[in-house]
Prior knowledge:
Blueprint: H1 2-18, H2 22-33, H3 38-45, H4 51-90, H5 113-127, E1 131-132, E2 138-140, H6 141-144, E3 170-172, H7 177-186, E4 191-200, E5 212-222, H8 227-242, E6 248-252, E7 258-267, E8 284-293, H9 295-300, E9 309-316, H10 317-325, H11 338-342
Parallel strand pairs: 1-4
Antiparallel strand pairs: 2-3, 4-5, 5-9, 6-7, 7-8, 8-9
Amino acid sequence: MLEKIENLKREFDAEIQNANDKNAVLNIKARYIGKTGKISEILNEIRDASIEVKKSVGAKSNEIKIEIGEKIDKKMQQIETDEINENLAKNWVDVTLTDSKKDLGLNCAGYHPVSIVQREIEDIFISMGFEILDGPHIEDDYHNFEALNIPSTHPARDMQDTFWFSDKKHLLRTHTSTIQVRGMESHKPPFKFVGPGKVFRCEATDASHEVAFHQLEGMLVDENVSVANLIYFMKTLLSEIFKKEVEVRLRPGFFPFVEPGFELDIRCLNCGGKGCPVCKQSGWLELLPCGMVHPNVLKYGKIDTEKYNGFAFGLGLDRLVMMRYKIDDIRHIHGGDLRFVKQFAEF
Length: 347
């Protein structure tokens, strides 16, 4: 078993040396020291072994795990440094020609709160074996509606009125579910992935609604998937984000692309459930529509519905950010005011 650990370390050293981007490094991290990684597999194998074997293998595994973590951090720093140097070389600017009195955002010293939370969520899902996908902002009718079980005559289209282009065939995507459609086209089951991004709708703006906002869609397709699997992943995500157990409720909800469908609500963290403009005085905030993937959607993805099923969910990133940092108006997130962004420089 100790020899197996040493071989695992040599395999890791070879892989991390050849990794040249952040996604590759994060995937390696998940494979080796993630919750279901190779180190965890070794520890599970010795569950019934003698105490002496557990001590020696456990100690060696922890030592290798720490060493792998340090090498991953070092590799990420190296990649970030290389990217910075490359950007500096490409985008060199003579700062002596600029007006030093103007704040151009170069000294903001912090990420946007949506970027902070999105990166954390991506890391959480990568640790659970999910892949991160992306998709275009401009979509066609098929990927945005038809392939999601929303034909042209379906009333659900009225709930997602958006911005169409003059050809009447393309539009600004109304949800990141389009990434799920493209994911099914490029992957064969079993698979699990998430897709974050910005979406657009003709909304009446208020404290919790904007015409452009951020979502994160996720999908898991495998054999014998149940609602219990869905609830487990969602509660794990929320407890990791808020660093504590959060109160949630699951209630029936209609979405054309899932059956059965649910609304997962979170107890409003801004007011503690007492009622405020963010939660519309209800004490609860609709955060996470979810459900079991509709068979029609799987058929559009050319997936055998007799063998596979799965769950899907759509997370409102902006609302999650508002709960995390107690932001009382979504319009602050999209306002472009650097004074707002600077508040998060310490995070």
